[in-house]
Amino acid sequence: MAPQRWWGWGEDDAAVTLPPGALEGLRAELDLPAAAAPRTPPRLEDVRVGEPALSEGVLALLAGLVGDRFVCQDRLARISHAGGKSYPDLARRRTGEAGAAPDAVVFPGSHDEVARVLDVCAAERVAVVPFGGGTSVVGGVEPLRGGFPALIALDLARMDRLLGADRQALTATLGAGATGPRAESWLSTQGLTLGHFPQSFEYATVGGFAATRSAGQASTGYGRFDELVLGLRCATPAGELTVKAFPASAAGPSLRELLVGSEGTLGVITEVTVAVREAPAEQRYEGFSFRSFEEGAEAFRLMEQAHVSADVARLSDEEESRISMALASTGSKTERAGRAYLRARGHDGGCIAIVGWEGAPEDVARRARLTREMLRAGGGLALGRRPGASWLRSRYVGPYLRDAMFDNGVMADTLETATSWSNLSQLHKRVRDALNESLLARGTPPIVMCHISHLYPSGASLYYTFLARQEVGSEVEQWSAAKTAASEAIVAGGGTITHHHAVGRDHAPWMAREVGELGLDVLRAAKARLDPAGIMNPGKLLPGAGPTAP
Amino acid sequence: MAPQRWWGWGEDDAAVTLPPGALEGLRAELDLPAAAAPRTPPRLEDVRVGEPALSEGVLALLAGLVGDRFVCQDRLARISHAGGKSYPDLARRRTGEAGAAPDAVVFPGSHDEVARVLDVCAAERVAVVPFGGGTSVVGGVEPLRGGFPALIALDLARMDRLLGADRQALTATLGAGATGPRAESWLSTQGLTLGHFPQSFEYATVGGFAATRSAGQASTGYGRFDELVLGLRCATPAGELTVKAFPASAAGPSLRELLVGSEGTLGVITEVTVAVREAPAEQRYEGFSFRSFEEGAEAFRLMEQAHVSADVARLSDEEESRISMALASTGSKTERAGRAYLRARGHDGGCIAIVGWEGAPEDVARRARLTREMLRAGGGLALGRRPGASWLRSRYVGPYLRDAMFDNGVMADTLETATSWSNLSQLHKRVRDALNESLLARGTPPIVMCHISHLYPSGASLYYTFLARQEVGSEVEQWSAAKTAASEAIVAGGGTITHHHAVGRDHAPWMAREVGELGLDVLRAAKARLDPAGIMNPGKLLPGAGPTAP
Lengths: 550, 550
Known about the structure:
alpha+beta; Alpha-Beta Plaits; 2 domains
């Protein structure tokens, strides 16, 4: 697979540009300057990056373990591993800054090589950042040294094999470095699917999914990745930790659930045994309209609690529905007719939902019938397949669009939370208002939109997208103000600080309010046993985990 | 609620006796002496129990915290808390031995009282055994002192309140001491149910369900208790640990999954927030017959993997089916007709399955149709409602029968495991053979029977019952030989050492093979942080956890 652009998402030939109409719309909504020149990324050779700090001796040790050509110190490798794909990550690199890049990028080829690299790094006091697809949007792969003199990125790209599939048990064991497409492509040769499709699907890896408790677009149906993981193999500085893939067990606290979500701070997940399914013969996606976000959320709640939910269930709030329709507008006759249809039924200015089912055709037909009944009973208006097909086509386009927005001076970022159904409406408004107010206060009036993306019997997730005119030269400060306001609103409003983006560096300051100081101490105790030197991904997950806080 | 019999299960007026026909059958199968006098339990005053060892000073401190009348040192309280309800527990008490009884039984009335009792016990070096319904069958509440000079049982019976219900989110918060019937009775006033019905339902508590990763008879449909728990409040010697009840979160390793299954070794679970459901308007249970265990298991696998499983799904192996029919036999005309029906269809000597659905009538009808289709396609023969109704009537009778068997000189015990579908048949035979061989070798030819009781997409549980003529005077040694042989077969055969009975004392020797030495060390590190003095439930879960191994 070709490497991603070091300064943005994906590969050059998959990049998108904003249609002229959309750009016009954003100009008006976000108060953009009339016709600014596009912001272009710097040239690789102009990016500021420190000299590599690994001694020749340590480099030789590492090369001895994995082979010369799998220890890289070149500019492209280091800068490509200088962080993940969060807005501040990209803002830094697009403004020519990669000062904290790893001293080297090491590509181990096996679990045993990972284990030996960790031994060397612990002995030589080298911090280790496990690196899968590098798609973290929370600073999860930021090369924070935590007081250590040197740091490597441990890139698992070579460990991307299908290690086994059990068709009777519907499980598969995959190398941690397998990307979404690679895993799906192998499984499809067995007629199987993992069914895990986060927006980062094209680049993110199975190990990363497990390490971050990833949720994908179809996780309402297939289950979150933390639910799909049955077994794990993990290399830690203290040795190997293997969790057997039992269907269920009552043998004490779950070590699986300790490693899942550990974000590289306890060790390196090298193999994952996951639940898979028969590859669906049919995918069916449809649109529905609701008169309000509250009406749609209530219909979704009843559907989920009746255990007849669609596999994909998304509900945009009024603002997201309005903006999506405006950006997609072509002014065609069909579109005008559609709007008239909605208006005539009191759905003007309402909310768009996308629901989708996957499986055997008779199964999809049966389940779609149940879902439709529930949604209609809850006030939903069926919009047919067109909105579903349109969503499915563009399901991975978000991060590409973010780059295109950056080109045009627009900050675009997303964040997410989850809460109980009874608290959903309150939290929805509270976080929206916090984002709006924080960006208005900086003189950059934003667009703030939200959708429900994952349903659970007891509650749902809220996924926010916010756009604003960039403060050129203060991109990170501007983002940080909005992010902080939203995070405070989430925690004060009874939401989890993260539903599926994980903690990384960006959410660590809120972890004490999420799990309590004693809860953090328990995690620190586990880390001290598995990673006594503290070399594993310093500054992530646990506030102040490293010898020096970042 | 009246207290249970200190030497057996349940209350006197719910006791059962073996029907004469059943006793005759057991005599023949188990080579019992022709007409031995029934074994009667000893009188309370004859039971050997040590002098209480708590100093007056500590007793006064405890009484000051919870009130005089909630610190009990009387003979009945101490002997009733001298262990759980495992076969060796009952064998010891029925043979007049309660030497290790707690020095006192303390009944706290609130989370804060629990916290203060733990403070006193840590300071005064008193071991603490958290005690819910006392129904552990794995030595989970055995009063092992772990080197401490004194020990209390901390009985949560007073903390049995419904603390709140959220009808929109379908969650409820319950005091840890609420028993199954008490929780269900409260929830039913709100039209809700927890849907958790283990065989210990009548006495076991919500806190115990959480602390042991309990699974109930309907957990295939409602979910295991570890899946129902959303939030927890836990008092530990190091302070309060509270897990918030988010529907889902990606905020790091799961502390919920560390406390669930901790079996009182990390602290005392005082409150549990659980997922509940609308109380079912209809319950429908039916019987099916399969020609063999393998045929039935394959039909169950396909049903579960198609996500159309019944809420209850049990499949007895050939031996369990044979014995159940023999013990229930009345020789009636209906029964003879039934047997002829099975024989005519090649199902003679086959396996009986019970499947059940709960919910709204239209939901039950729709789901039952799907299940029946799958089971018929898999070779199942519908036996109608009679076997289902019969199973439902006697769903909690097992432990009462065990007492009646003891009266008649029969050892009866159960054990369970789980494994993948692809490994199920091999493990089924291996554990069965190990039990058979170990008891045959002692000259007590057993009956060994097994059923699948819980289905998962990747595998299923196996639940064994074994009966044999008691070796009078060596009851515990006899049991221990069979238990050890089965446990070795389970671990060597790729099963989990426990599917839902938990670890306690009895499974602790196999924990290293279940989770690895490093896995145990991580749990010990968490315990050291939360319980630095090591007073919490010594000798359970972790082999060699206490200052001195038991």
